[in-house]
Write a structure and sequence with these properties.
transmembrane; disordered N terminus; 304 residues; MetI-like fold; OppC_N; transmembrane helix; mainly alpha; membrane; MetI-like
Length: 304
């Protein structure tokens, strides 16, 4: 009788069945968002990033002055109702220049990291999937690039290409390529041993289709996390190159260049250094907090 009762046991009903159906209906990305929004620090970081993105998009509407407008009679004015962040050595409004600087710093961060992701991920997928001499050749290339301190390699690249914002962007993209390449390679080495990859090969699927439709989608999680953190690093590197005079050139309102131009007036007009520095700090903090939150949300071990 007990065996018959077990065999004829009815499926769960009521709240239990609703919970099971809801869990099955939730997509992986919705699940990631649920875990992400539980992380207060990550939400704060996302809010900071969103703030600076909106600042960059609507810079023309927010900035009360043009970033090139000079007025020597207003030289080194302290923060006031007319100039919220004060003025610099040429009488330019620092608030306006910081606002326009957000557009430049974020542009450099996003574009340089996008280039690094495309090149690094492509090389990493090829190295991890094909292995042998291809893997050895690409891995040695990554090792050579990683043998140099990143900022020194960026300086060397800009020195060869010439100081400009575009060349600084190229340099930052180059120094981040091996980071994404090695990350994706390690993921591909694991993914290519899965049964569905073996099955795809068995039915004669082309390598390009396997890489684009099976290997790459299953390697996206670490790329997204590293990409978010790399944007913060790229903004710092762009500021460092600008500070050294190898990035953005005057009168471009790049935050690092603003710090370099104001370093001689740090005691006389500290606000000329303080506000660009705070902008760099908050932007980098936002991307770092958001990247940490994405890492936890995308990690399957964090589901429970």
């Amino acid at each position: 009788m007990a065996e018959i009762a077990e065999q004829t046991q009815l499926p769960p009903s009521g709240p239990e069945m609703n919970i099971q159906q809801e869990d099955k209906a939730v997509s992986p990305w919705v699940d990631v968002w649920r875990r992400f929004r539980k992380n207060k620090a990550a939400l704060f970081g996302a809010a900071l990033v969103s703030f600076f993105i909106l600042l960059a998009i609507f810079a023309d509407l927010i900035a009360p002055y043009g970033f090139k407008e000079t007025a020597l009679s207003n030289k080194h004015l302290p923060p006031s109702s007319d100039h919220w962040f004060g003025t610099d050595e040429f009488g330019r409004d620092i608030f306006s220049r910081v606002v326009y600087g957000a557009r430049i710093s974020l542009w450099v961060g996003f574009i340089s990291v996008a280039g690094s992701v495309v090149v690094g991920s492509s090389l990493g997928i090829i190295a991890g999937y094909y292995g042998r001499w291809v893997d050895a050749l690409i891995s040695r290339l990554f090792d050579i690039l990683l043998a140099f301190p990143s900022i020194l390699l960026a300086i060397a690249v800009v020195a060869m290409l010439g100081p400009s914002l575009r060349n600084a962007l190229i340099a930052i993209a180059i120094i981040n390529v091996p980071t994404f390449g090695r990350l994706v390679r390690s993921k591909v080495l694991t993914v290519k041993e899965e049964e569905y990859i073996t099955a795809a090969k068995a039915i004669g699927m082309k390598d390009s289709r396997i890489l684009l439709h099976h290997v790459l989608p299953n390697s996206l999680a670490p790329i997204i996390v590293q990409g978010t953190l790399a944007i913060a690093t790229a903004i710092i590197e762009a500021a460092a190159l600008g500070f050294l005079g190898m990035g953005a050139q005057p009168p471009t309102p790049e935050w690092g260049k603003m710090l370099a131009d104001s370093k001689d007036f740090i005691m006389q007009a500290p606000w000329t250094v303080f506000f660009p520095g705070i902008a760099i700090m908050l932007t980098v903090l936002g991307f770092n907090l958001m990247g940490d939150g994405l890492r936890d949300a995308l990690d399957p071990r964090m589901k429970n």
